[in-house]
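Our preliminary data section would be incomplete without showing what the modeling component actually yields. Below, a chain of 209 amino acids is followed by its predicted structure, encoded as tokens that our downstream tools consume directly.
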Amino acid sequence: MTHTTTIDAILQRAPVVPVIAIDRLSDAVPLARALVAGGLTVLEITLRTACALDAMRAIAAEVPGAIVGAGTVLTPADLAAVAAAGARFAISPGATPTLYAAAAQASIPWLPAIASASELMVGMEHGYRRFKFFPAESSGGIAALKSFAGPFAQARFCPTGGIDAAKAPAYKALANVITVGGSWMLPKAAIDAGRWDEIEALARAAALL
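Predicted structure:
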């Protein structure tokens, strides 16, 4: 399968990809179960916390139906580490020549991020047609994505950054948006208190987008 086909098969499974920072390893499995039960099966576990890789391993092993992905992948070493931890895809907040080279040899698909037309053209030179648009709101938001649609008709995006429940539907309605990334269904107070039913309800609402 081509890179585009592989990443599409993952991202098309959910209208929203939860962007998750797990501070306590003990939260990983119940949090993932709540999201999956609510209909959000594609999970981006960010490499922003010390237990991120262990969280990926735990979710991959213990939560049937979860498609574990890794976010905040900044280096080729990160890319190798998340693949070894059971991630089925990787996402970065940007893209570099070394990451493009590493991704060409990686065992899992990678979603580079762009914030401008020039960055998008670089990605397309490398054969990519799917990108994270980040940080979405501060990089022009919906207006920018509409502008990309003309000259870059074959590109589709996962906008992430500053998107909440109120803004997400307008992003999702764009023809060149495949899914939306966000963390509004993950209120810290609910996670800290283990209110997994609250997380599941928020996930269910997000899954209706």
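The CA atoms of residues 95 and 119 lie 8 Å apart. The chain has one domain: 3-207. Preliminary results of this kind motivate Aim 1 of the renewal.
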